[in-house]
């Protein structure tokens, strides 16, 4: 194709710029004609806002969906997941099945969460059911661990609400300083006695039909301070939060590994100490969580054809090897804390670009969104709604004609149906 | 000595060693208790008790224990041989080891004096309590260790090995194609490739292999699925010999922890847990100078390692206990090394006041903690981790830092490595030698640690599977040579030691089994 891609970014990160330059693309400013704009979430708001927004042409692509916050703001994600569950229940879907305690068997993957101040009464009711539990308060619109604190007494929340009534609750009406309060996972899986969370990357190229890819090279982020669930430590944020942005302030922060451990290390450790079956089940469940969270927001997402998005999923695993979705980031950090981190993020952008801008040519937003397998790099297909529908149709056809299906081998992780086993 | 006499000698030695062991008393008790069972008849008493011990699994346990004894301590070649021959039959090796020990001990003692730190001291009660509380998070402690330095590093040890000479052997010949081009100048018998092909037949190109044939592109039905099934059976049967044979083709990740424990006969019995707790109490009571060395070593190595930093606290929990474990002393009957002795203050030279220091007789050196680190991926219970590590140490790792003629000893491994290179990659060897980049100067650090800290953990465990499977460290030397072969093209282009080191700096992307297999079975001979 003629011409070179003209790119803009408002995020001055070398992992981005090196990738653009490697492709021979040309840097322009946002006032010139551009084809590809890797932008912050502040900028995307302007691009699609009613007042200042402008029409994107067919040869322009951006790295966010207009209303990505339906997934990436903590309160909205919860709201959408709750709605999704109710809808499935209404349809009588087997996915919405509940156990004897009234808990969803397949859809209970976010810790119990309430919006504050809106759901305050509901929260108090839940709090009284298990008064010894710890809850975590997070501002809805902030990232990197900012504004987060833990509480384990109702009086603490009352005090917070009194203090903030004058300041924050005013802003709350504008939706900016609303909080979510979630049940704190107090039985996290510990490795070497340390708490960690998982950062995994998921690329979405379209929501309707849903096509998403999972990046194989995620990592675990470790607390540098030992985990003790005792409440006296509640104030020591380093113990509880694994965000590197916070951990970097800890005295023990190590600049060689940055407290990061690859997912392949985690898999090796779990398979070695707990066995292959439970480990595979855990990773299947993680994939399942990601797909379900995306399905939950798909109906409300503005599926603009100029958009794609690479999300940072934060997941905590508990000591029963159950994964919990904590939050989804729209702008996962592209800052590199270590040499390995830099390589990972460079490759993440590289593989993302290979999928969304096939061959590095000038984009055409009407592209078919079915990259060949060799273009996937370290991504693997997480879910392809189109393909799933056609496979289901095929299966119906075959089962009607009386053919048996036969197992297809058990090797998980490879090939295009890594998670098929879990959501049949 | 004919075979029959040798066998009966071995048997009587093993019987001697197992007598009075915990297993012995357990089996005795079981035999007594079974007398109350109806199927035990007086007229066929001996037979019935034997049958009972067989069906209840005690015979298997005895077999495993016998198997362990056979692996650990070979009987002396002649009944009249003095015990020092069991440690090391060659006098010049014994002498070299003794003078090396003297050097280490001197360096340890001078550090002691210099820093004014006692070798050992009782901790005051407050400190004991403090340590008890933070036992699980010793890594958060940041003592000032700047004044401590490792007693020695692998490269100091290499210099000693280079200086080794057999007084009965003249190696002053001019360099020729027949002389040895390497740094190790002692004549030891090491195997060549044809001999190794025989010994390592399970690694041949036609045998299924974990680390090769479990690649994602290969359908699991071809090899992996069935192999894993066999592995499960081996674990179920609790048979040490079968587990060891199985490990030669590699252990599946999910079964490795069990299989290794079985091969090592580390069953983690209640008494093992108790033993560990006693050692822990010892750590809490007394502060040793070597603790600082261990601390320093972990901070310098594992704490900065992408794979192992997570396990920092476990390493302290294992290594501090290890230094106090006097059960480790037993292995000195077949180790060329002799535990260092210190004297109670003011009684220097008085033999009755001599004590082994540290209590286990092993002075840690720079990188020592890397022997433990990979095991943390397999065992998340400290006492189990400890038991397996100790067994690995007294079977294999001690040989990597003592001077001996054993085929698994570091001297043989060095020589083996150099011979393989000289024979099969003469051009490369010659080139590196010309630019003063002796291959052993690069490979030595890998071999001293059995590659721990150099390979990715999954690959390292595949390598150690074979160490356990063949009950030998020889494979380590083969891998070192295979790495050079793999990077030969790049190495031929370098013109300095630094450049050669740069080519070989990162081994974390290597796949060990294909390298070993190709080197052993696809090299032209």
From TrEMBL, chain A:
The keyword Cytoplasm applies. One of its GO terms (cellular component) is ciliary basal body. It comes from the Eukaryota. It catalyses: (L-glutamyl)(n)-gamma-L-glutamyl-L-glutamyl-[protein] + L-glutamate + ATP = (L-glutamyl)(n+1)-gamma-L-glutamyl-L-glutamyl-[protein] + ADP + phosphate + H(+). Residues 391-424 are annotated as: Disordered. One of its GO terms (biological process) is microtubule cytoskeleton organization. Belongs to the tubulin polyglutamylase family. Part of the neuronal tubulin polyglutamylase complex which contains TPGS1, TPGS2, TTLL1, LRRC49 and NICN1. Interacts with PCM1, CSTPP1 and LRRC49. This is Polyglutamylase complex subunit TTLL1. It comes from Myripristis murdjan (pinecone soldierfish).
From TrEMBL, chain B:
Residues 250-471 form the Rab-GAP TBC domain. Transmembrane segments: none annotated. It holds the Pfam family RabGAP-TBC. This is TBC1 domain family, member 19. It comes from Myripristis murdjan (pinecone soldierfish). The gene is TBC1D19.
């Amino acid at each position: 194709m003629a011409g070179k891609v003209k790119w803009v970014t408002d995020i001055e990160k070398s992992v981005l710029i090196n990738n653009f330059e490697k492709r021979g693309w040309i840097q322009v400013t946002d006032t010139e004609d551009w084809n590809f704009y890797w932008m912050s979430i502040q900028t995307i708001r302007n691009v699609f806002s009613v007042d200042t927004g402008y029409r994107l042409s067919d040869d322009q692509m951006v790295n966010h969906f207009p209303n990505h916050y339906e997934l990436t703001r903590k309160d909205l994600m919860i709201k959408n997941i709750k709605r999704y569950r109710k809808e499935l229940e209404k349809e009588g879907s087997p996915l919405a099945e509940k156990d004897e305690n009234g808990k969803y068997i397949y859809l209970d993957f976010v810790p119990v969460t309430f919006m504050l101040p809106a759901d305050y009464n509901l929260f108090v009711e839940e709090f009284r059911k298990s008064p010894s539990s710890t809850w975590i308060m997070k501002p809805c619109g902030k990232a990197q661990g900012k504004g987060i604190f833990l509480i384990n007494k109702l009086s603490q929340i009352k005090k917070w609400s009194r203090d903030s009534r004058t300041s924050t609750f005013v802003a709350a009406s504008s939706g900016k300083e609303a909080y979510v309060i979630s049940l704190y996972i107090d039985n996290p899986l510990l490795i070497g006695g340390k708490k960690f969370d998982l950062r995994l990357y998921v690329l979405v190229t379209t929501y309707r039909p849903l096509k998403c890819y999972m990046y194989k090279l995620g990592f675990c982020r470790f607390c540098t301070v030992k985990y003790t669930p005792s409440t006296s430590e509640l104030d020591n944020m380093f113990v509880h939060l694994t965000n590197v942005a916070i951990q970097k302030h800890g005295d023990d922060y190590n600049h060689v590994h940055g407290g990061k451990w690859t997912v392949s290390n985690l898999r090796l450790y779990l398979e070695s100490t707990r066995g292959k079956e439970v480990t595979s089940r855990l990773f299947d469940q993680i994939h399942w969580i990601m797909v379900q969270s995306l399905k939950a927001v798909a109906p409300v997402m503005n599926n603009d054809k100029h958009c794609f998005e690479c999300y940072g999923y934060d997941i905590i695993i508990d000591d029963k090897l159950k994964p919990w979705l904590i939050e989804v980031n729209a702008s996962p950090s592209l800052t590199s804390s270590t040499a390995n981190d830099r390589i990972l993020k460079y490759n993440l952008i590289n593989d993302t670009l290979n999928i969304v801008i096939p061959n590095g040519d000038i984009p055409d937003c009407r592209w078919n969104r079915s990259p060949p397998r060799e273009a996937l790099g370290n991504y693997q297909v997480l879910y392809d709604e189109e393909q799933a529908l056609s496979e289901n149709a095929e299966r119906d056809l075959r089962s009607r004609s009386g053919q048996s299906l036969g197992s297809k081998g058990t090797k998980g992780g490879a090939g295009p149906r890594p998670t098929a086993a879990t959501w049949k | 000595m004919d075979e029959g006499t040798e066998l009966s000698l071995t048997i009587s030695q093993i019987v001697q060693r197992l007598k009075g062991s915990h297993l012995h008393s357990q089996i005795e008790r079981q035999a007594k208790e079974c007398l109350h069972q109806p199927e035990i008849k007086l007229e066929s008493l001996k037979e019935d008790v034997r049958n009972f011990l067989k069906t209840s699994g005690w015979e298997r346990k005895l077999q495993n224990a016998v198997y362990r004894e056979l692996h650990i301590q070979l009987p002396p070649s002649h009944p009249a041989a003095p015990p020092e021959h069991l440690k090391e039959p060659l006098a010049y090796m014994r002498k070299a080891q003794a003078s090396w020990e003297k050097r280490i001990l001197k360096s340890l003692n001078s550090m002691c004096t210099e820093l004014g730190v006692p070798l050992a001291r009782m901790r005051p009660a407050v400190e004991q309590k403090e340590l008890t509380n933070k036992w699980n998070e010793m890594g958060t402690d940041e003592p000032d260790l700047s004044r401590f330095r490792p007693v020695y590093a692998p490269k100091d040890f290499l210099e000693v090995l280079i200086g080794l000479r057999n007084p009965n052997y003249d190696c002053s010949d001019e360099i020729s194609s027949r002389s040895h081009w390497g740094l190790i100048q002692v004549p030891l018998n090491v195997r060549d490739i044809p001999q190794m092909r025989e010994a390592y037949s399970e690694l041949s190109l036609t045998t299924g292999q974990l680390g090769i044939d479990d690649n994602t592109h290969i359908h699991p039905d071809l090899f992996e699925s069935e192999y894993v099934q066999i592995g499960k059976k081996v674990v179920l049967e609790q048979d040490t010999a079968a587990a060891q044979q199985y490990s030669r083709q590699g252990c599946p990740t999910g079964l490795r922890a069990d299989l290794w424990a079985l091969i090592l006969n580390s069953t983690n019995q209640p008494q093992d847990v108790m033993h560990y707790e006693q050692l822990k109490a010892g750590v809490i009571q007394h502060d040793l100078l070597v603790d600082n060395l261990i601390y320093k070593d972990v901070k310098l190595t594992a704490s900065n390692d992408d794979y192992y930093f997570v396990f920092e606290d476990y390493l302290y929990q294992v290594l501090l206990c290890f230094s106090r474990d006097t059960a480790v002393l037993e292995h000195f009957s077949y180790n060329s090394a002799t535990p260092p002795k210190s004297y109670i203050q003011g009684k220097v030279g008085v033999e009755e006041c001599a004590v082994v220091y540290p209590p286990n007789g092993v002075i840690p050196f720079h990188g020592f903690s890397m022997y433990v680190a990979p095991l943390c991926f397999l065992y998340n219970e400290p006492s189990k981790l400890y038991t397996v590590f100790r067994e690995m140490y007294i079977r294999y790792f001690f040989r990597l830092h003592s001077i001996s003629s054993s085929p698994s000893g570091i001297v043989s491994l060095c020589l083996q490595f150099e011979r393989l290179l000289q024979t099969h990659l003469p051009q490369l060897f010659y080139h590196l030698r010309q630019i003063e980049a002796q291959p052993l100067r690069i490979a030595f650090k890998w071999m001293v640690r059995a590659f721990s800290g150099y390979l990715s953990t999954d690959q390292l465990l595949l390598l150690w599977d074979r160490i356990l499977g063949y009950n030998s460290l020889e494979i380590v030397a083969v891998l070192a040579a295979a790495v050079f072969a793999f990077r030969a093209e790049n190495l031929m282009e370098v013109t300095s030691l630094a450049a050669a080191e740069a080519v070989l700096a990162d081994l974390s992307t290597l796949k060990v089994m294909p390298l070993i297999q190709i080197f052993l079975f696809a090299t032209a001979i």
